[in-house]
Amino acid sequence: MWLYLLAARGGFWLAAERDDRPEPRNPSAWPRVVAVMPARDEANNIGQSLQSLLGQDYPGAFEVVVVDDASQDGTGAIAGEAAASIGAHDRLSVLHSGRLSSGWTGKVWALKQGIDAAAGKSPQPAYLLLTDADITFAPDMLKRVVSRAETGRFVLTSVMAKLRCQSLAERSFIPAFVFFFQMLYPFSWVNRADRATAAAAGACMVVRRDALAAIGGIEAIRGELIDDCALAKQLKAVGPIWLGLSEGVRSIRRYDGFRPIRAMITRSAYAELCYSPLRLLATTIAMALAFLAGPLLGVLGSGTAALLGLATWGLMVMAFQPTLRFYGLSPLWGLALPLIALAYMAWTIESALQYARGRGGAWKGRIQAAPRSTR
Predict the structure, then answer these.
(1) Is the pTM of this model over 0.85?
(2) The total number of structural domains that make up the chain
(3) Tell me, what's the pLDDT at 361?
(4) d(CA 236, CA 200)
(5) Fewest CB within 10 angstroms: 72, 97, 118, 324, which?
(6) Largest alpha-carbon pair distance within the chain?
(7) Tens-digit pLDDT profile for residues 183-194
(8) What span, in angstroms and rounded, lies between the C-alpha atoms of 373 and 375?
């Protein structure tokens, strides 16, 4: 299994798809861009996020639409204050989301309202930047992403944010989250037009407005919990897409304990398996074989079995190293990958149990995925 993963899975483990490789060329004219940022109870993050976004060194026309999604902590007011503090209030619109429409997940419903507002601007934007309220951008990031979109004629250009990795919980599980995501969706395959693999990262998605219209608008993914990858799948059907890692897009959301990370995983892990018990069983078996069998044989076995088990463990430790370097962590964290994978297996099973209990997709007071009998 590990020989296949290392040699024939798109080189996912190398973490080589970066926003600065190769350096994108500047377009002859800079297109108009409108950013849409849904925000629900983001008072702790939205000020810093907005200031970094409105402070972009972008040569073209650029505005931001924040959709305050029924926040109870003054998120909308803080957004306005953040823009005013840097003299950018004229480039910010704050909308208050209407009541959640049936059949929509909360974030996608907020995105729809922001996208509709962006479409009503004159002239209409060529690109939409879909982002989150816990993301900060280096000053040149919008310019870099739009340059890549224009150069490659991509209908979707997405950058995976570098997640915060400071607390023990973050160092234990965040690099593995990125590693597993790349394993599921090898970025080099995502970026090839002849491959069906499609994925995106919701923190930074630059979407061509005409391509979004071609798939029927954001309504095409109205009920999706993992909205970024669902959007990527739809858009790849109409044109090429690109996904890479970046140092310039960062998440400032804190995970100071293990419980918040567990909640992040259990919210959507079963959705990734399409709420299928058979896929859950197959995934559990596959992860047990890939991440647990080798180390167990290496520690508990003898002879050839032990040697092969230790070799397998060594291969997974080696595969984890580029991601650990990206996050500036000790190579020794690679030895813990089997235990980290075991926790992810447990949380995936827990995600399925939450779904069965009518608590699927729980996020900030909303239950966004539940069996029909519990809706």
Answers:
(1) yes
(2) 2
(3) 87
(4) 11
(5) 72
(6) 73
(7) 999 999 999 999
(8) 6
Show the beta-strand stretches assigned E in the chain: 33-39, 62-68, 92-96, 127-131, 135-137, 156-162, 204-208, 241-251
CATH number, position 235: 3.90.550.10
Q: Is 154 part of a structural domain of the chain?
A: yes
pLDDT at 151 over 60: yes
* Of the residues 209, 236, 251, the one at which a domain ends: 251
Q: Which residue has the tokens 């993914």?
A: 221
Q: In this structure, which amino acid lies at residue 177? A: F
Residue 9 lies in a domain: no
Same domain, 161 and 300: no
Residue 64 sits at φ, ψ, to 5 deg, of -130, 135
Decide if 7 is inside a domain: no
Domain span including residue 321: 258-368
The answer to whether residues 205 and 287 belong to one domain is no
Inside any domain, residue 6: no
Q: Which 3 state secondary structure label does DSSP give 125?
A: coil
Beta bridge partners of 363: 366
d(CA 219, CA 375): 21
**What sections of 241-336 are H helices per DSSP?**
258-272, 277-287, 294-300, 303-326
